[in-house]
Amino acid sequence: MILDLARDLQCSPDPVRPPHKYFVSRSIYDEMRAPDGGIRPPYQAFAGWLDRTPTARIAQKREEAERAFHRVGITFAVYGEESGSERLIPFDLVPRIISGDEWKVLDRGLRQRVQALNAFLHDIYHDQAILKAGIVPAERVLSNAQYRTVMQGMDVPGGIYAHIAGVDLVRAGAGEFYVLEDNLRVPSGVSYMLENRKMMMRLFPELFATQRIRPVQHYPDLLLANLYGLSPAGEERPTVAVLTPGAHNSAYFEHAFLAQQMGVELVEGPDLFVQNDTVYMRTTRGPQRVHVIYRRVDDDFLDPLAFRPDSMLGVPGLFAAYRAGRVTLANAIGTGVADDKSIYPYVPEMIRFYLTEEPVLANVPTYLLHRKEDCDYVLAHLPELVVKETHGAGGYGMLIGPTAAAAELEAFRQRIVAAPDKYIAQPTLALSTCPTFVESGLAPRHVDLRPYVLSGKTVNLVPGGLTRVALREGSLVVNSSQGGGTKDTWVLAN
Amino acid sequence: MLCRTANELFWMSRHIERAENTARMLDVTYRMSLLPYEVIEPGLAWAEPWAVPLITSGLATGYYERYPELSAENVLRYTILDATNPSSIFCCLRAARESARSVRGAITSEMYEDLNSAWLEVRGYDYARLEAGGVSEFLEWVKMRSHLFRGVTVGTLLRDEAFHFIRLGTHLERADNTARILDVKYHTLLPSAADVGGAVDYYQWGALLRSVSGFEAYRKIYSDVITPRRVAELLILRDDMPRSLHACMNFIHETLEHLCDEHSREIERAAGELHAKVHYGRTDDIIRFGLHEYLMDFLERISELGDEISQTFLVPEWDSGVWMRLAGRA
Description:
The complex is a heterodimer of chains A (494) and B (330). With 494 residues, chain A is of the alpha+beta class. Among the domains of chain A are: 207 residues, Rossmann fold, CATH 3.40.50.11290; 63 residues, Dna Ligase, domain 1 (2-Layer Sandwich), CATH 3.30.1490. In chain A, 28% of the residues lie in helices and 22% in strands. In chain A, strands 3-23-22-19-18 form a five-stranded mixed β-sheet. In chain A, helix 3 crosses helix 11. The radius of gyration of chain A is 23 Å and the shape is globular. Chain A starts with 43 loop residues before the first helix and ends with a strand. In chain A, 46% of the residues are buried. Chain B is mainly alpha-helical and 330 residues long. Chain B folds into two domains: 157 residues, no CATH class; 159 residues, no CATH class. Chain B is built from 17 helices and no strands. The mean pLDDT of chain B is 87. The chains are: A alpha+beta (494), B mainly alpha (330). Chains A and B meet through helix 2, helix 9, strand 7, strand 9 and strand 10 of A and helix 1, helix 5, helix 6 and helix 17 of B.
């Protein structure tokens, strides 16, 4: 199903639009241009502006954006390269625009999905009704490496586990959206959503003056309100802190950015200590109690006494304090089981089970390779499919059948046969494309979308998210660690 | 404020101040080296103009480990660009930027952007570019970046603890530097103690004053020939002279009054004592005591003060019983 852009180009440049030639593929959904060459409604105003704007000005603005991102230091560290190396995530000037009506559906679907996932997490650590009902196979959950038995029977404030969720959406050939992945551990990227918007407003204020683009910049306020709401019983004015693994973490910029935007302390493990099940920060005026921790450290590294004993990032005794209800962690421990790729196929059933509603957002059809018939099918159709590790993330450990070399296919085949339950497979989706500036001018590049859903006493999300773009022609991998870039995402007001 | 944050801020500002002071010293040396000079006592290192910045900063040993001979180019390479010299301008700006990056939530985004762009620029320098663009121009640029950063700090940062620790770092470093410059120059420039009262080489002392932006101030205040005695008075006792020991101690003492509480009275007392020494000091007494001895004593005390600030606020002994008792109370 993957589409060869070179083969399938609709080669009819519109003569009245000389400055920016833009060809799209007939069989891939393009966010801006319909197959007949017309401009889709949400892009009408933008496309007009693009045509009126000289390419030289655009080029100058691109340079300006790059310089500004460097100076502001919006960088990410790259693992496996020289230590401490920082890179810019490429930023593309063409926004990804979503109509108000489309967003309405996405908004409803996202709330529904995250609500069901939180209900699922509460359930599997308490009564396990969904397992007893046989809707999700018990062994897929209970023997999952991300399932934390230490969380069984423990109550967390409001019964909410995934306070911050980043749900990856993609649009396929006919324009329909699919959920590709639920990120319920420590989803990142929201700082780029905010900085991209700031950059676009600075570079092209005229676009915002003439169109009704819904704002997203209040995200930090919503996040802070959410975290305040998680305070352990009896604390009216809780102290909130963001826990980071440190300046060498790839998402460090974001940790610092969010702490600053919320006006709370950014702490590293050694800045905290636990005494009598109470967490304190080491401050210049002595110990200060911490009530809520927005932690950007994985479960395994949170507390060397409870999890990995070799962790230098964590805080000894943190889990005991958490268990005693003296501190709240966001997200809760043990959310990883619900965003595991082997649990993902069951999310639509969770929605029906917990909410007795029909899912608004569709899942991508998924083959579970521990099932013999699925596995046989996948092995027979490997060159057409995408294969992912169930615990993988960041675009690593992934096979994209249509673009893989014979040797790679064979290597994956052997790995699947050796451990089928470590993998899932999905049809290769023709991800939608969005116009993107590349060396040769404006060209279609594949995009996805990650909105951020905040759950607490209420469920909140800002209209928008992070649009990631695969900058290499034909590539479907949007991860920043693999050469992806980002765009501003506009949701238009109706 | 987190101790770690305070520590990074303190060292961020110290490193920027150190980069500026190094630039000042090199600039004056560079200008001096363009004048004909007489070697007063051949064979003595400090008799060579290019040795002075090394001695003042305590870098002579490190320098001679890397370079067998003293030359303008080598001193510039070592003190500006050398990544193995932790006091080089390159390393100071890198360290300051790393500190800022690790606590960027505690400073304003303008401050971080300013420091980051200074770092991005200095990173692109090698010796060829330094020479091509002009050494003086580069040193001037370093000074201006330091001024700019201080201006951005004063103009944008909330007057909270972060501001106080930044200010503390700047003025401790500056006091240390002024005392060192004065001491080394005193040795270099005064052939004998008998010359203390007399007029000496206009160029040499003018250079010393210029290195601490004190030349014009001297003219304004004294309207007279330069004498070592007045230079000492200006740089030690005048509190209206921004880089004098007195001015620095005013800032340090005042800042510590903001920061200290009942657990940290001892630091405030030590700073107050040192402040009183410059506040009530008299030039005659300093000369009688011996300028060199006076400055050595000052340097030792300011270094002790820095250590105590560090132990109390920045990197306290974490697991001491005191902390645990405090935690029980918090």
